[in-house]
Every structure is written in C-alpha cells, then in structure tokens.
Specification:
289 residues, TIM Barrel
C-alpha cells in the first residue's frame, strides 16, 4: 500500500471540512490509507471509519497530541492504531484540551494588548460544541473582526498562516506556551491506548538539523515508534536526513500532506509530499488494516 496520507484534520479541530467530506475528498484523490488526526480529540474517528468503508479506502484510527519537550513548547505526536474508545485516553485528551483552552485565553489577552480585537462569537461556538480552540481559530477571530482591518493591512496580514507566524508562534508577541503533556507522556498515552507514536513534521517545528536529530534521539529513548519523514514542507535534504536516521534507530517512517481543506494556503491537497528515493515503513499498522 503506497498511496497513504496519515495526517488530516476535520472541523473537529482546525480543518475546514466535515469528516464525511474530508474522507470523500481523500478517496477522490486516490488515497488508499488515510488517518484522521484531529488535535487532542478522537471525536471524528467513528464517522471517518464509516465513511472510509463506504468509499472503499482504509483508515487508521488516530489523534495528534500537542506536547512539550523542554524549550520546545508545541511539538506534535501522532498516535496511530489507537483504541479511540479507550476511556483513559478520552479522559487524558479532555485534560489536554482544557490546557489548550487556558492557553487560548492567555493568547487572546495578549492579542488584545497588541491592539487587536478578538471576535469571541466563533470561539464561544466552538467551546459550546466541545471543540478545541487553537491558534488558527484565534487568528481567524482577529482576521474576521472589522475593527482590525486597518492594522492588518498595515502589517500585511491577509491570511491565517501569515498572522500566526507574526503573533502566535514561540518568540512572537501573543504566543503562550503549553504546560502539558510532555512528549514522553504523550507517547505513554498512545501506547496505553494500544497505538504507535510518531513524531509529526519535525522540520515544521525545529529548523536546525542537529536539533532535530537530537530531539529524535530523545523521543526514541522515550519510546517513540516512528517519525513522519515524508511531509509536504520537508525538502529533499530534510526528508533523506530523517529517513536515514529513522532507519539507523529502527523507527518506522510515515507520510502525510497534513490536509486541512481545499482552501488552505499550504495544506490543501492530498498526496502532496515527496519521498526522494526513500521508502515508507509502517510495521504492524499495515498488518492490522
């Protein structure tokens, strides 16, 4: 099975589409094996399983857990092949979302300090529906508020990605870090739920080769099972470096285009990654399909 896309996001987290539409889009793009990996939730997994069966494609149960590793405050650990009905996992993910809510409130206050009005209506609607509020939703609440038009134009922000990078990443004026779980804890949560833990898009969060490799070694020592080597923004050097180091460590190698919906500036197409001569390695995840 070669046409795999093992990270995608629905409206249950920061994606654009309802679950059924996302799965239909994946099938239309020729995806054979899909993972719905919404942030800190498995709310859409049951629907995704049914939709995948209807479209004749395979689906891995999954979630993407935001985690802390020392000074790196927002690394993402993917859990594949999890029991999405596991009560302990559900309780832990709920706690992670509560921490995300506290963080979102801190960042909203910092955005206000920076002169931006934050439209709370869409954020309140997500909270009422039990859905997480993340940085894309905060950015959207700023971009959609008419009082911000002049400042946004002056600073050159016309889309969510631009605004997040200017205000909501480490070192920027409205960023607030997570406090839990650690990467090691997230790996443990995934293992306790019967799954395998993969580090998502390493070079999206860390720029330097040596820092990525050092982090990979730490996560491997903490029980990491694999790494997302093949990713839509990884260049050839990054891809080969990750794939070869994963081979040396005996880690599995996954791939994704991190699909967020057809209108997303970066993550709008399935199967948009390159392998640059290296191969997938999914171990028992394939055996269990």
């Amino acid at each position: 099975m070669e046409r795999v896309d093992l990270q995608s996001h629905s409206h249950h987290s920061d994606g654009e589409l309802p679950v059924a539409e996302l799965v239909a889009a994946a099938a239309a793009a020729g995806v054979e094996l899909l993972a719905l990996s919404d942030h800190d939730t498995v709310d859409g997994v049951e629907e995704a399983l049914a939709a995948a069966a209807a479209h004749g494609i395979a689906l891995l149960t999954a979630t993407e857990i935001s985690a802390v590793d020392g000074s790196y405050e927002d690394l993402h650990i993917l859990g594949y092949g999890i029991d999405h009905r596991d009560g302990r996992l559900l309780e832990r993910l709920h706690g992670a979302r509560e921490d995300r809510e506290v963080r979102a409130e801190r960042m909203a206050a910092l955005l206000s300090d920076a002169g931006y009005a934050v439209d709370d209506a869409p954020l309140a609607a997500r909270r009422a529906a039990g859905k997480p509020v993340g940085r894309p939703h905060l950015a959207g609440a700023v971009l959609g508020h008419p009082d911000n038009a002049e400042q946004l134009a002056r600073e050159g922000h016309a889309d969510v990605t631009s605004f997040i990078r200017a205000y909501l990443i480490p070192g920027m004026p409205a960023y607030a870090g997570r406090t839990r779980p650690t990467v090691a804890e997230a790996i443990g949560w995934i293992h306790d739920a019967g799954g395998l833990a993969f580090w998502a898009h390493p070079f999206w969060d860390i720029a330097a080769d040596d820092e990525v490799l050092a982090a990979l070694d730490r996560h491997h020592a903490a029980g990491l099972d694999g790494v997302e080597c093949f990713y839509v923004t990884h260049d050839e050097h990054q891809t080969v470096l990750l794939a070869d180091r994963a081979g040396e460590l005996g880690l599995l190698r996954s791939a994704s285009s991190d699909y967020h919906g057809p209108n997303h500036r970066l993550f709008s197409h399935f199967l948009a990654y390159q392998r640059h001569g290296r191969s997938l390695s999914l171990g028992r995840l394939i055996d269990e399909i």
